[in-house]
Specification:
Elements lengths: L5 E4 L4 E4 L24 E6 L6 H4 L26 E8 L32 H9 L8 E4 L31 H9 L6 H25 L5 H26 L20 H16 L5 E5 L3 H6 L6 H5 L5 H26 L12 E6 L13 E4 L10 E9 H11 L20
Helix pairs in contact: 3-6, 4-5, 6-9
Length: about 425
């Protein structure tokens, strides 16, 4: 795919151009048709900590379908009513830890399987990244808000919402400026030196693998398993090195937006992160994004003095008011993000919204309740039925929804986590 990109050249620089129909975007399609191919599918997972205010966020289950009363917590999304659906009764059956709203949200893992004190499995975004990542500089991008209370902000263990094929945490970027630099800042190290560094890393890996294989002889069974995990991690590093080498000659795209300020926090951080996510998709830098959103700093930016954990245990009064204000702010931010997705055009005249499969939600419903996870689906990428209040059978596996979305965006996977099948009720 990389040879299909176009560049402006001068005597001293390259500047990557977006995929424009007038500059050969039509080459994606057959010469006979002379029409551009459909833009790529993309997946976005937006996770919130501490759940929602239960009785003012969820539409009534007595009003299934399109003719439902928009609840107070979702009122800012009213203008997008036809473009998102709320899904009820999705749960991860193995979830036991209150406030861990993202650790197992995209994996559905049984953290105690086999007697382990903690384990996880691959998250849905990383499954998508294995399919989509071969076409982009970054197989996926993980964002983890700069929240000083992140370890206790309703998200639980992990460096982001992403977990790899071994169930190990995948690191996330903690600020908009980090993301901006990753997407658009050039690597000033000369190409020859970068290649030499890659060769040195590969030679070190070769030596490590040779020594490790010598060690494998005569090891106890448990040690063999540990060594295999080590081999897997080394192979992952090798694969990343190969990807890095493939992209050495490809300059990063010109940024379509200005660099963000050094330290936006709370609501302003989320706004800037959303803008940068749009930019990442515009430049086809990645097709898979996750964002573990901050909560403590969001409350502070709204002038709320109630601590995030205290807010989650709401009761009539100051805590409940804080929880509902949080819901409104998050819905306003999501509504603005949907505006941007609709406004941003692809090369064929369609919008980013038309090709994105977007999920917004949490593994935690409210307080310590783990059943009936708050779930919003949007975007045209997966052909999901939009504009509906959808009621699933009680305790439907949340991973059934992930499996459905993955298959509908073209990922060849038969199951995910504790899935029992796909959800035909989600499809239009």
């Amino acid at each position: 795919m990389k040879n299909r990109r176009h560049f402006l050249r001068s005597s001293s620089a390259f500047i990557a151009l977006p995929m424009l129909e007038s500059l050969g975007f039509r080459r994606f399609a057959s010469a006979a048709s002379r029409t551009p191919a459909a833009p790529p599918k993309r997946m976005i997972f937006l996770g919130m900590g501490y759940g929602v205010t239960e009785d003012s966020w969820f539409p009534s289950e007595d009003q299934p379908g399109t003719d439902y009363d928009m609840p107070a917590g979702l009122k800012p999304l009213e203008r997008h009513r036809a473009n998102f659906s709320v899904i009820h009764q999705l749960s991860n059956r193995w979830s036991r830890s209150g406030h861990e709203g993202s650790t197992f949200w995209l994996t559905g893992a049984n953290q105690y399987e086999g007697g382990a004190t903690f384990r996880n499995s691959i998250s849905a975004d990383q499954v998508a990244a294995t399919a989509f990542g071969q076409h982009t500089r970054f197989p996926s991008i993980q964002l983890s808000g700069a929240d000083p209370d992140m370890g206790h902000a309703g998200h639980g263990p992990g460096l982001s919402m992403a977990w790899d094929a071994r169930g190990k945490p995948v690191a996330g970027l903690n600020s908009p400026l980090d993301l901006y630099h990753q997407l658009f800042s050039p690597n000033t190290t000369p190409l020859k030196e970068r290649r030499l560094m890659l060769e040195q890393k590969r030679s070190v890996l070769d030596a490590v693998l040779e020594d490790a294989q010598d060690l494998q002889r005569g090891l106890a069974k448990n040690d063999v398993v540990k060594l295999e995990e080590y081999f897997d991690s080394i192979r992952d590093i090798e694969n990343r090195l190969v990807r890095d080498e493939d992209w050495q000659n490809i300059p990063k795209p010109e940024a379509p937006i200005q660099a963000p300020p050094t330290g936006p926090v709370g609501k302003s951080e989320i706004e800037v992160m959303y803008d940068l996510m749009i930019a990442a998709m515009q430049t086809d830098s990645t097709r898979v994004l996750t964002y573990r959103q901050p909560i403590s700093t969001l409350l502070t930016s709204l002038g709320i003095k109630v601590a995030a954990h205290d807010m989650s245990h709401y009761s009539p009064g100051e805590r409940r008011d804080a929880s509902q204000r949080r819901d409104l702010a998050q819905s306003e931010l999501l509504a603005s993000f949907l505006d941007r997705l609709k406004e941003t055009k692809e090369a064929d005249g369609s919008s980013l919204f038309d090709h994105v499969s977007l999920v917004y939600g949490s593994n935690l419903r409210t307080v310590h309740t783990m059943e009936n996870c708050p779930t919003i689906l949007s975007g045209g990428g997966a052909g999901v039925k939009l504009g509906h209040n959808l009621i699933m059978p009680k305790n439907t596996p949340l991973c059934n929804a992930w499996l459905t979305l993955l298959q509908e965006v073209g990922v060849n996977v038969e199951r995910h986590g504790d899935s029992t099948g796909t959800l035909s009720a989600l499809l239009g």
